Structure formats: C-alpha cells, structure tokens
Amino acid sequence: MKSRLIVNPVSGTDAAPDFLQTINERLRADIGEMDIVMTTAAGDARAAGESAAREGYARLYVAGGDGTLNEVLNGVASVEGGLEQMTFGLIPLGTGNDFADALGLPEDVEAALDILLAERTIQVDVGRLNESYFINVSAGGFIAEVSDAVNPELKSIAGKLAYLVGGAQVLLEYEAVPTHVREDGGAGEEQFDMQMFAVCNSRMIGGGRLIAPHAVIDDGAFDVCIVRAMPMLEFISLLTRVSSGDHVEDERVRYFQARELEMHFGREIKVNTDGEVLTTDVCRYALLPRAARFIAGEAPFAGQ
Fold first, then answer.
1. CATH class, 3-125 region
2. Which of 234, 249, 276, 298 is catalytic?
3. Which pLDDT score, from 0 to 100, does residue 297 have?
C-alpha cells in the first residue's frame, strides 16, 4: 500500500520542521515504506496530491493546516477516481486547524499521531465551489477580506491573533454587496445586501470561530450562514457572538441547510475557500456526500 507524507514547512507557526523527524519515524514504524514531499511554493501540495492519485497511492498524510489540505484535496479530486481510492490523514500544524477539530484530532502532534496510527476512518462530505473543491468552509464578503489580509507573515508573527488583527484592518473599509441567492435548484430565492456569508461543511472558521454551530461533516448538506447588511457598530457587536455561535439567533442572520446554492453578486468580491482566496461575482456550490475518507478520532461533529 503506497503512502506519501506531504509537509508544508511554513504552515502555522513554521513548526513543521521541528516535528518532521517524529512524524517520519512514527509513521514509517507503523506503515513501512513512505515517501515525503516538502512544499516550497503555492501549488506544490496540489501537485503532490495529484501525482499520488495518478500513481495509485492509497494513503496521503498531510502535515499542515486547512489551506495545505485544500490544495492536496483538489489535486486528488482532479484525477478520476482519486477521492475514492485515497485515505487522508491530517497532522494539524496550521494556524487554525478547524477541520482537524471536526475530525477529533488534537493540536498536540504526538496525540494526533496516536489517532492516525489507529487508522479509524470515516467518510466525510466534500463541497464544490464552481470548479474547485473544499472540505471545511467557503466564505465570502467580510470574512474573505479578512482572510486576504491575514498573510503568511502575519500568521507567523501573531498565530491565531492574526485573524483579529486582519479583521481590524478590514472592518472600517468593507461595504455590503447586493446579492441574489438561489438554493437547491430554485426551492428558495431572495435578494438583499449582504455583509458576509459562509457555506459550511464543518462548524468553525478562522481558528475556532463557530460560524456554523450545527454543521455535521457527514450529514449530506451544507450549513449556510448569511449575514445581511447592517450598521457597522451593530455588525461589530454581532461578530463578538460568532465565537459562541449565538449570532445565528439574530434576525438579520439567515441560517439554513442546502445541498446546492447559487449566489450572484453586484460586484466582484473575495471568496475564501479553506484559506485560498479567489475573486468572483458568482458562486455555484454543490455538495458531494461522503466523498472523501479520513482517519479520525471520536469525531464529535460527525454522525458517522
């Protein structure tokens, strides 16, 4: 059974090189032969995932954060049958590690390796945005502007506080955008000015912000959170409630489930998909139920 370890050495707080020997020794002792790919530039993780799928690998261990995992996932998914053949093992070395949390993987590397070596797997949903795939959350508007402001240098310096710093930079400049939403092929349709939105497979974004408190990673549906335009001070107040998930009770927040979603915007906006930011004026979302296999602990946010 061919296995590969993909390591992002600058993920999170640049800690991957410190753990590489431990990760390598423990994985090889259990699974035997394994090759290692170290990423050095954007796109390397995607290429490593794609080549692994084409060459018949059965297991991919990803040492990094949600962004590194996103690249690997898209590389594997670009190959016909790639997702079906692959088992993913995530070693959480990112800034936020939000999807690792959903999988029941602790941030302590040794403890995470214990779980990975037990090889308990679950099937999780995969999201598609236009022609790309994601596993955690795709979010637009204010959230994506913050993600764009949180560059790798800021993450290295500030860690999880980087999201707060980035948010402060964006807050006073962001303007709501006219948005047309169509869900599940026309089952629901409306138009309004939007402050931000999140299409969620998992519960958290930005290093522990509970954007979708009811999301389950294998239930066959997105949890969608859309925040309508409001005065800035009221928006700031709403943001303080995201950590606990209380924001979904606000009347200006629409929270619902859907398997398909189409959003058209009055101008091009930034959209963040598992840490990767694109610019677009239309988002077409579709869910692939239980399309990817992950090694997991007692995943608290999966029906299994």
1. alpha beta
2. 276
3. 93
